[in-house]
Amino acid sequence: MADPNSTTAAKPRVVICIGDIHGYLAKLQNLWSNLQSVINPEEFSSALVIFLGDYCDRGPDTKKVIDFLLNLPSAYPNQKHVFLSGNHDLAFAAFLGVLPEPGNGASFKEGWKEYEVNEEREGWYKGAGYENMYLQGRRWAGTIKVRFNATKGTEYKGSIYDAGPTFESYGVPHGSADLMKVVPDEHKRFLADLVWVHEEENVCIESEEGIKHCKLIAVHAGLEKAKNVEEQLKFLKAKDTRVPKVEALSGRKNVWDIPKELTEKPTIVVSGHHGKLHIEGLRLIIDEGGGLENNPVAAIVLPSMKLVRDTDDLTK
């Protein structure tokens, strides 16, 4: 039998990277069936599927989206599924109290200090259970004073994270401590188990020079350009919650480019988060949706680099 890792092995494994879903079940279902239509059935059934994070907030169906994702391993037992944490999922998990403790005897509360100048404007959560909550949980369930998000041109949905629809999908009003009781245990486990980074060796990509064998690093926002990559990966694998804001999950400009040291050996860095589609060399940013109702949810399929959207009409 051929060694699947051998470069002479038959076809390279199909890898599907799916952008931010943000509570839009219908978009996820349409995207999934479109992926099924465009990928050879055998390759689809054994694909590596990497979800790039941000399953919750903005859209109306967070609860149903998580149910859909939880069902995938039994519906597609030969696929491998990787569920990355997005900054929104991290904040949801923080509110539910399912993040790992900070360690070294530190408390989550210590992480508030650095950002407390924003507390009033962002209206941090002060309800039951807030006393030692990870900063992002308080921001997530808080009530933002300004109604309008000038950058996005949309109204905030409850909090700076637009978490209102997530609360409502579980049948409770935004900011209610009852959410901690009504979220099913398997959803809490799902959020607790999300990884902050995923590394995959020998992922193939089609380029002008033919098939390229690369390493792949998947992380919600990206890796910081100015920091040692090994140290960043170690921190992300450990899910170190002593840091109140995880740049690899929520950074912007500082995580846009591939760190220089990764360019020596071909490394794909794939992310969602940025509210746009950007493909430049081996830097793949797949978040066409940005959580906005009228934008599509996109996925990229490797090695072909084919883009698939929930809005594609494949009946033509």
Helix/strand class: alpha/beta
Low-confidence stretches: 4-8
Listing every helix as H and every strand as E from the N terminus to the C terminus, the arrangement reads EHHEHEHHHEEHHHEEHHEEEEE
Number of strands: 12
The N- to C-terminal Cα distance equals 39 Å
Q: Give the biggest beta sheet.
A: 5 strands, mixed
Which strands sit side by side, in order, in the main sheet?
3-2-1-11-12
Global geometry: globular
Number of helices: 11
Average the pLDDT over all residues and give the rounded result: 95
Q: Radius of gyration over alpha carbons?
A: 19 Å
Approximately how much beta-strand content do the residues carry? Answer: 15-25%
The portion of residues assigned to helices is 25-40%
Describe the structure.
The chain is α/β, with parallel strands linked by helices. It has 11 helices and 12 strands. The strands form 3 sheets. A 5-stranded mixed sheet has the order 3-2-1-11-12, covered by helices on one side. A 5-stranded mixed sheet has the order 6-7-8-10-9, with no helix packed on it. It has a two-stranded antiparallel ribbon with strand order 4-5. The termini are far apart. About 40% of the residues are buried.
